[in-house]
């Protein structure tokens, strides 16, 4: 489960990073 959690965390970071660059 730790691996799955890491993948979800990375996806969240990528989405947040994309939104940040759109500002």
Average pLDDT reading:
84
Query: How would you describe the shape?
Result: rod-shaped
| Low-pLDDT windows of residues | none
Total DSSP E strands = 0
Fraction in beta strands: under 5%
Order of helix and strand elements from N to C terminus: H
- Counted by DSSP, the helix tally is 1
Helix content: over 70%
Largest sheet: none
Detailed description of the structure:
By secondary structure, the chain is an all-alpha fold. 91% of the residues lie in helices and 0% in strands. It has one helix and no strands. It has one helix at residues 2-22. It is rod-shaped, with a radius of gyration of 10 Å. The model has no long low-confidence stretch (mean pLDDT 84).
Give descriptors for this structure.
single chain, 23 residues, 1 helix, 91% helix, 0% strand
Walk me through the topology.
Elements: H1 2-22
Précis, in short:
The protein has one helix spanning 2-22. The protein is built from one helix and no strands.
């Amino acid at each position: 489960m730790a691996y799955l959690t890491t993948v979800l965390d990375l996806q969240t970071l990528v989405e947040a990073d994309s939104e940040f660059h759109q500002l």
